[in-house]
Prior knowledge:
Helix 2 (about 15-40) runs antiparallel to helix 3 and helix 4 packs antiparallel against helix 5. A hairpin with a 2-residue loop joins strand 1 (about 10) and strand 2. The protein has a two-stranded antiparallel sheet with strand order 1-2. About 80% of the residues lie in helices and about 0% in strands. It is mainly α.
Amino acid sequence: xxxxxxxxxxxxxxxxxxxxxxxxxxxxxxxxxxxxxxxxxxxxxxxxxxxxxxxxxxxxxxxxxxxxxxxxxxxxxxxxxxxxxxxxxxxxxxxxxxxxxxxxxxxxxxxxxxxxxxxxxxxxxxxxxxxxxxxxxxxxxxxxxxxxxxxxxxxxxxxxxxxx
Length: 164
């Protein structure tokens, strides 16, 4: 295992991946959807486009840490193929979504034409929805891999379990 993989494997005595994914799975889609709301709702845009775009950009390190810690955990234990395949796509999806949001923010701030700003706004909404859906798919495939693996281990339970 490389030094980088070891760096991303543990946080204290706990595996980093199950901790890191919660930040990526919650913060990234929430901020992406806030950008989508700002693109669709002008009064919301005036107040929250800047902060939601900044929030979206700031979630990229969490997505990166979740992806890297997942690779490290996969090297140390097992690699759930489907989850790993989806997870590898999240960092580029997050960067592209943030880039479109930044472009939309810049178009609004710079006073670009309404038509061009509308097209970029549409792309921001589509990217936010697509990225949120991809986050769900990655998270679901990971949970499914963990829980289907956990359910494969059978634990003998005593017949008098209610008395305990």
